[in-house]
From TrEMBL:
Name recorded for this polypeptide: Pyrroline-5-carboxylate reductase
Pfam families hit by this protein: F420_oxidored (PF03807), P5CR_dimer (PF14748)
UniProt-recorded Gene Ontology molecular function terms: pyrroline-5-carboxylate reductase activity
Sequence ranges assigned to domain Pyrroline-5-carboxylate reductase catalytic N-terminal in this UniProt record: 7-102
Record: residues binding NADP(+): 11-16, 73-76
Domain Pyrroline-5-carboxylate reductase dimerisation, first and last residues per copy: 165-269
Alphabetized NCBIfam families for the sequence: proC
Biological process annotations from GO: L-proline biosynthetic process
Organism lineage: Archaea, Methanobacteriati, Methanobacteriota, Stenosarchaea group, Methanomicrobia
GO cellular component, one term: cytoplasm
Amino acid sequence: MSLEGKKLGFIGTGKMGSALIKGICNAGLFSPSNVYASDLYEPSLDELKQNVGINVSTDNIDTVNNSDIIVLAIKPQIIKKVIAGIKDDIDSDKLVISIAAGVKIADIESEFNDGTRVIRVMPNIAATVAEAASAITQGSNASKEDAEDALEIFGAVGSAIQVTENLMDAVTGLSGSGPAYIFPVIEAMADGAVYEGLDRKSALVLAAQTILGAAKMALETETHPGELKDMVTSPAGTTIRGIKVLEEYGIRSAFMQAVIESSKRSKELGK
Ligand SMILES: NC(=O)C1=CN([C@@H]2O[C@H](COP(=O)(O)OP(=O)(O)OC[C@H]3O[C@@H](n4cnc5c(N)ncnc54)[C@H](OP(=O)(O)O)[C@@H]3O)[C@@H](O)[C@H]2O)C=CC1
Ligand SMILES: O=C(O)[C@@H]1CCC=N1
């Protein structure tokens, strides 16, 4: 196994960095003693040290020096500044993984010293519960083994595929941002049931489980979603009445447009 004996570092322990650290440690891929993280925000470091048992520091150089693979989990807007502070401590023995939305590999590589191995990944927040959907893409100095390492890391917290970099903005609009499109759907479906008299707790459990079950069927049966929808929809039954309302409100167009707009924003962040 190519990850054997390697140490993993995170620069940035905000929402996504913390989700990945928790997911990866829970999956047992790295023992917490082999995971290092740094951030300017000490409470998130303290929480990870206490609850997960990883090594933490407020100095990014500590993370770099202690790690073989360094995940940049900071905002796209500050990535250049963060790289400037660590680049001279990164040699060709280390692999850098950027999860920053929109930021192109060529632009990341050009901020580091020549020859730096870079992989770009777009994960999602469901890494916390080992159900992330991630895509990775390989930089010009990264090897096939580096890509395999990245697929193994992100595959440990969900599904991970490799794509060409021109598709990363589409992935960002779809699966990177996607959980945030679905959480309001869960809440709104539960609201409908609360309106009809169900208690909030039961409504949320049934709404979330309904989405989980539908997603699992789509993945496991590999049947077209239209066909799965037809399996639920009895002639003159209840479901078709609900579907008519969703179509009247433009559900398909709304979701398509959300993915397209988010992808556009990812492209903007890369300019
Ligand atoms: N959230 C998500 O679902 C996803 C996010 N991403 C990507 O992940 C990256 C992180 O996003 P997210 O976790 O949401 O953002 P957060 O703002 O939650 O986390 C970023 C963290 O980096 C810290 N930070 C700021 N400056 C530095 C520095 N110089 N050195 C070390 N740490 C620093 C921030 O501290 P402070 O708050 O004090 O500034 C913060 O704790 C982004 O590039 C985003 O595009 C990708 C996929 C999904
Ligand atoms: O909203 C964002 O910019 C980040 C990237 C994908 C998900 N969250």
